[in-house]
Every structure is written in structure tokens, then in C-alpha cells.
Design goal:
Helices cover about 30% and strands about 20% of the residues. It is built from 10 helices and 11 strands. α6 links the parallel β8 and β9. α4 packs parallel to α5. It is globular and about 50 Å long. The chain starts with 15 loop residues before the first strand and ends in an 8-residue tail after the last helix. The chain binds adenosine-5'-triphosphate and iron/sulfur cluster (SF4).
Length: about 290
Amino acid sequence: MSTPPEEKSPDSLRNVKHVVLILSGKGGVGKSSVTTQTALSLINKGFNVGVLDIDLTGPSLPRMFGAENKQVHQSTRGWVPVNIVIPDVKHPERGSLSLMSLGFLVGDRGNSVVWRGPKKTAMIKQFLKDVYWSGPNGAPIDYLLIDTPPGTSDEHIAIAEELRFAQPIDGAIIVTTPQQVATADVRKEINFCKKVNFKVLGIVENMSGFICPHCAECTNIFLSGGGLALSQSLDLKFLGNIPIDPKFVEMVESQTDKNRLIDLYDDCELKPLMSGIIDKVLEQNCPARF
Ligand SMILES: Nc1ncnc2c1ncn2[C@@H]1O[C@H](COP(=O)(O)OP(=O)(O)OP(=O)(O)O)[C@@H](O)[C@H]1O
Ligand code: SF4
């Protein structure tokens, strides 16, 4: 018997090899920053990356990538994401980056979206189905990163339902902060992954210490090490710590068309740390979707 059309894997993911979700129990722990840096790291390792910003309450990725004024358009194959990084002769080792965010559709960043459950769910499902993902010249997207809203809400259930037909997906990176690891939110997020059968690729402890802008020394202003302890107690992989680096925020704010985040990030103290974190994800050798 053939599969009913609504139960097919979303066509938009046909050209996507790996899907990774970025989750956090609470807002403001740096999920979007970790998504951004995961994307930058993967590009620097030569992968073609797609980023889907599904955080409908506060889509922040267009701002992080300095693309707030860019526009998406529709083609016969679906929404065409914004090209943030395309291969260039100066950096042949880099991959590409394309971004789709609700922020491009609602425009003004102050125009926050206050949709009720069913409308949100419908939007998320449409986002997963209707974006035409493709690398340069039709090359496959190696990694699609999905930046989800914080918590385990209706939106997450919608994502899980939609991705059920897009297996195998690699799984989820859980972002926490040193203060948050002791709370129930992270455990809830991990239980959610178990329930919907998403593999936890590992835990990242963000805002773990502070890099001094003067001497680059890292000081633990809050307790550190909770992320590692939590991973050990739940038998999950600990991917690493990312300290607060005021220069990272400065880089995000100082981008221009000629001075892009991908270039500025080369001088960021967080770059090698993030590279090590991503290596720990890659070494898990998750099977590609095709
Ligand atoms: N390691 C870091 N170093 C410096 N600044 C950081 C770091 N992580 C996050 N930030 C900053 O903290 C703020 C909140 O981070 P971010 O937007 O990534 O969090 P979030 O969890 O995605 O939030 P939300 O739930 O609102 O989407 C941003 O201004 C970001 O630039
Ligand atoms: S780490 Fe402390 S002592 Fe060193 S430069 Fe920074 S603020 Fe000053």
C-alpha cells in the first residue's frame, strides 16, 4: 500500500543529509548563539549548512547573522532561504550557509508574534515542509540546524510530529547554563527527547565563566561543571563549556556587508572551543538521510 501524501518525508528535506535540533529548557541561555556558532564551525569545517529559525516568539538569528534587512522569496519549489555565506575564492575551505527565519516574514524585530497554539503549529509544519533547501549549485545541505523555542511546548510536539517522517535525524544538542543545570527544565527537555525518540547528541554548558576583554583570562563567575555532572548522572555526552565572551556580542553588533560574522569569528576566542564541541558531535557518525 502506498504512503498517504501527508505522511511522506517533507520534500524540502530531500536535499538535506543531516538534521540537528538545538534545544534548551529555558529562554535566554544562549540557544541562538550556540546555533549561530555551530553553523559557523560547520562552515569552517567545509560543510554546507542550513539554519531554520523556528523560535516564533523571538526569531533572533537574522540579527545574529547581520541579515535583518534581507528578504526571502517564494519559488515554485518553496521559500528560498537567504544566502549568508557562499563559497568564495579567498576561503575555498569553507562551506555555505543559508538561513530561513520567521523574522524575514514578520519584518520589524519589534513586531513580536503572538499567535495561539494551532496557528503556531501550522506555521512550524509549513516551515519544515515549504522551505527549498539547497547548497551552492544545487549541492546537498550537509547539516540543517533547527533553532527551536525554549521549553517543551506545542511547538516542540509539532516539530517532533513533522520530523517523524524525516528519519533518520541526528538528534538534539541541549544548551544549558551553569545556573540552569540544577533545575528541572533541562531534565524535562531530555525526557521530551526520549519520549519523541530524538537522540541527545550531548549537553553544552553556555555562559560558563567569563572571558576578560582585557587579558582574555577566563574567570568562573558562577559555579561551573554542572553541565558535566548532569551529563554524567544521565549518562549523556558532555560536549563542552562556552564562556561568556563580550567580544562575541561585539562581533555580532559590528557586522556590515563587508565585515561579516564568519570573518570576524576567525579572531574569536570561542572559535576553537566551539570547534572541539562540534568535533564531538561529528565523531558520533550519525547516518546521513541519503
Ligand atoms: N557565550 C556567550 N558569550 C557572550 N554572549 C553570549 C553568549 N551566549 C549568549 N550570549 C548573549 O546572550 C544573549 C541571549 O542569548 P541568545 O539569544 O543566544 O539566547 P536564547 O537562549 O536563544 O534566547 P531566547 O530564548 O530569547 O531565544 C544574546 O545577546 C547573546 O549574544
Ligand atoms: S581578568 Fe581581571 S585582572 Fe585580568 S584584566 Fe581582566 S579584569 Fe583585569
